[in-house]
Specification:
By secondary structure, the chain is mainly alpha-helical. It folds into 2 domains: 149 residues, Helix Hairpins (Orthogonal Bundle); 32 residues. Helix content is 87%, strand content 2%. It contains 6 helices and 2 strands, in the order αααααββα. Strands 1-2 form a two-stranded antiparallel ribbon. Helix 2 runs antiparallel to helix 3. The relative contact order is 0.05.
């Protein structure tokens, strides 16, 4: 029974945690953690390099002291002071032992420094590589999130929530357009509209008669039987009513 409850709780809370986890935030935090380790690693490498520098100085100092004690031993021997020469020889031997030990430590420290520097460089390269990969994964996560939102929106259109609104508005607009078109047809098919058409046609005829009269006065159009002479020998253009009588 306990195993079943345990499995149930793990399934419930595991699902909640999985939904709450944002890959983008997790990747960004991982990169921040990696970058925060770089200064500490640089500090460690600096300490190893400092140890190497101290050992190098110690080796130089010991070598100088050994040369100095060797000269003192030779001077004591020349002066016949064997007791003093023995003291300098003892000190010289101690310095030689210390020099050998310092050289061994220096060799070990030099290797440690090279390894630490190489490890730091490799780690920085890995940080840059992981940062680039993380940025690419973040972009993919954002694109996937946008696609999920778009698919949800398209699903809502397929269900008919927003599609029904568009259809209703389209039907209303079409009804208004049809009503306006019907009103326009009624307005243009009435008696007033016919009268306006007749008046417009009459105006066009008058304009054409005036244009023809100008052309005859300028000799651009030959005289017609509808034209009669004027009092001063000029032509007189017949109006619409006179032209109708002449034709009769």
């Amino acid at each position: 029974m306990w195993q079943r409850l345990k499995r149930l709780f793990r399934a419930i809370f595991g699902g909640i945690i999985e939904k709450a986890e944002d890959p983008e935030l997790i990747l960004q935090q991982t990169i921040r953690d990696m970058r925060e380790k770089v200064p500490q690693m640089q500090n460690n490498v600096a300490q190893v390099m400092a140890t190497q520098k101290l050992l190098e100085k110690e080796v130089v100092t010991l070598e100088r002291e050994i040369v100095d004690y060797d000269a003192k031993v030779k001077a004591a021997v020349k002066q016949g002071r064997d007791d003093i020469a023995r003291t300098y020889i003892t000190a010289l031997q101690e310095k030689q032992i210390a020099l050998e030990r310092a050289k061994a430590q220096l060799e070990t420290s030099t290797r440690a420094t090279e390894q630490a520097k190489k490890f730091l460089q490799n780690y920085i390269l890995q940080v840059k590589k992981r940062t680039s990969e993380a940025q690419q994964l973040v972009n993919e996560a954002r694109a996937a999130k946008m696609q999920e939102q778009l698919s949800q929106t398209m699903a809502s259109f397929q269900v008919g929530d927003d599609a029904g609104t568009f259809d209703e508005m389209r039907e209303r607009i079409q009804r208004r357009a049809a009503s306006a078109e019907a009103k326009m047809d009624l307005a243009t098919s009435g008696t007033e509209a016919q009268i306006m058409d007749i008046e417009r046609e009459s105006l066009n005829l008058q304009i054409e008669d005036s244009l023809l009269a100008y052309k005859r006065q300028m000799g651009l159009v030959p005289d017609s039987p509808l034209s009669v002479g004027g009092d001063a020998g000029g032509e007189k253009t017949l109006g619409p009513s006179e032209r109708s009588k002449a034709l009769e």
